[in-house]
Amino acid sequence: MHLTIALAFFAGALQAQQPVQNSRADSISRLGTSDTLDSARLSRREAIALALAHNPQLEIARAQIGVARARKVEAVSIPDPVAIASLDQQPGLFRSAGSGQKNVGVGVVVPFPNKLRLQGKIAQSDVTSAELAYQLQRQLVAAQTAEAYDSLLVALRHRADLTEAETLAHNFLQRTEARFNAGTAAKLDVIKATVDVAQAANQLLTNALDVQTAGSALDRLLGRPTGIAVVPTDSLVVPDSVPSLDRLIAVGLAARPELASIASQRQGARAATSLAKQFWLPDLTLSVNQDRNLPDPALFSTGLAFPLPIFFWQHTRGQIAESSFRERELAASERDLRASVTQDLRDSYATARIALQQAVFIRDQLLPSARAAYRAASASYTLGGSSALEVLDARRTLLDAESQYTDALAAANISRYELERAVSVPLDTIH
After folding, report:
1. CA–CA dist 128, 265 (Å, integer)
2. In this model, does residue 420 exceed pLDDT 50?
3. Which of 165, 236, 284, 347 is 20 to 30 A from 291, alpha carbon to alpha carbon?
């Protein structure tokens, strides 16, 4: 009788010793096939494309480009002609007499041509800055969408791990109850196994909230109403190695939109300073006038209107000084931004490299050891050589290792997206 029970326990242990990754893959597969009418199956690339097409932040950035282009048109526009009609030398207010004058005319003011050129240059710098801001926003949205997609993958992978842990806990409880009924296990072992089953069920409830939160965050980035479940078709894998740091810094300093934007702003500031220094240049005025009471032909008049810069210090200490200080501000900001970009690249590179090393270490070292320890403890418990506490501890160690590996995969992939955002160029194109 005891031999039969031992063989049954040993068979259960062999079943529990099957590779853990197979059951986790089955759990993930079941999650992936739960697609319904209120869900959408998306790959990571499809999710990013959807976000770039519908994210509201990008709509805002595109509208800002339109505003900047409209302001450029305004900056180089010639003022509309002005039509003038007047009653002059009349005997009373709004009283017309034959001896008075009834003048009609048209006049236009043409700004000095170089002023229009400089105003257009200033406005063009704003257009360029808006376009570069849009480019930067696209990169941010793409990185955020990839991170949100992987966060959802992490939550679903944790669910698969926890589901597997709950199954193992139930199996262990059944084995412990069988041993208790056979008189080879203490009642305390049954209580511990029961508590372990309850803990596994509670962790699954917590994970359900994580899945919902990750899905809602992804929905917002995709620019669609929350509540439509996304079923990822991609999986978390160990990413490729990253290029060298020196190459990344060189590419990043040449490609970052922020640096190009501030360079454009400096050009606009220089044009603004030149425009401020031309306060003394005249504007051309053209006009045509005719007295309707006289039979003579129309009288034409042309002229130049230009300021008398008597109070020149108001300009040198006002608009010119303001533009000059603005140039100095942007020059210092550019130096600081280059240092900030370099630091960002270095930090992102270090984070991506360490995260990749951690994922590889857990995959190749920690997980195999934790699985071997659990198999050994489970087999020993079946044969009566170890306690229930040892099996539970080994199973928790295995679950922690699997959870660490999932988090490490997420960190490795997300840090790679952050590094790609810092470089502003796809890492696959950098050699």
Report:
1. 9
2. yes
3. 284
Q: Which pairing describes strands 101-110 and 283-291: parallel, antiparallel, or unpaired?
A: antiparallel
Task: Locate the DSSP E strands across 21-67.
Answer: 39-42
What pLDDT was estimated at residue 17?
39
Tens digits of residue pLDDT in 78-116: 888 888 777 766 666 666 666 666 777 777 777 888 888
Q: Is residue 51 part of a domain?
A: yes
Domain interval for residue 216: 2-77+113-281+313-429
Residue 108 lies in a domain: no
Tokens of 293: 């009471």
Amino acid (one-letter) located at 406: T
Q: Structure pTM?
A: 0.74
If you average pLDDT over each of 32-36, 40-44, 145-149, 273-277, which comes out highest?
Answer: 145-149
Q: Give the containing element (helix H, strand E) for 87.
A: strand 82-88
Q: What tens digit of pLDDT does each residue of 21-45 get?
A: 344 444 433 333 344 445 678 888 9
For the record, the structure tokens of 264 come out as 């454009």
**Predicted local distance difference test score (pLDDT) of residue 19:** 38
Backbone angles phi, psi at 95, to 5 degrees: -120, 125
128 — pLDDT class (breaks 50, 70, 90): very high
Q: Phi/psi at 284 (nearest 5 deg)?
A: -90, 130
* CATH number of the domain where residue 122 is located: 1.20.1600.10
3-state helix, strand, coil in the chain (%, to 5): 70, 10, 20
pLDDT bracket for residue 189 (50, 70, 90): confident
How far is it, in rounded angstroms, from Cα 161 to Cα 399? 7
Tracing tokens 């998306």 back to the chain, one arrives at: 42
In a domain, 137, yes or no: yes
Give the 3-state DSSP-derived string for 337-400, with helices as H, strands as E and coil as C: HHHHHHHHHHHHHHHHHHHHHHHHHHHHHHHHHHHHHHHHHHHHHHCCCCCHHHHHHHHHHHHH
Q: What are phi and psi of 288, to 5 degrees?
A: -130, 125
Distance separating alpha carbons of residues 288 and 104, to the nearest angstrom: 8
Give 348: exposed, middle or buried? Use CB within 10 Å, 0-12, 13-18, 19+: buried
Count of domains forming the chain: 1
